[in-house]
Amino acid sequence: MTLQRKTAPEFKGIENIHLIHPERRELTNGCKVFCFNSGDQELVRIEWIFGNLRFKPESPLLNMAVNSLLTEGTHSLTSAQISDKIDFYGAFLQVDYGHDNSQVTLYSLTKHLHHTLPVIKDIITNSIFPQKELDTFIRNQRQKLQVSLQKNDIIARRIFSKALYGDTLYGLSADIETYDTLNREDMQVHFAQMYQPSNCTMIVAGKIEPETLNLISDAFDKEWHNTGQAADTGQPVIIPAAEHFYFTEKPDALQSAIRMGGAAVNRTHPDFPALQVLNTVLGGYFGSRLMANIREEKGYTYGIGSGMSSLKHGAALFIATEVGADVCKLAVDEIEKELNLLQNELIPEDELSLVRNFLMGSLLGSLENVFSHADKFKNIHFAGLGYDYYDRYVNTIKTVSADRLQELARKYLNFDQFYKVIVGKY
Question: What is the value of pTM for the model shown?
Answer without folding.
Answer: 0.93
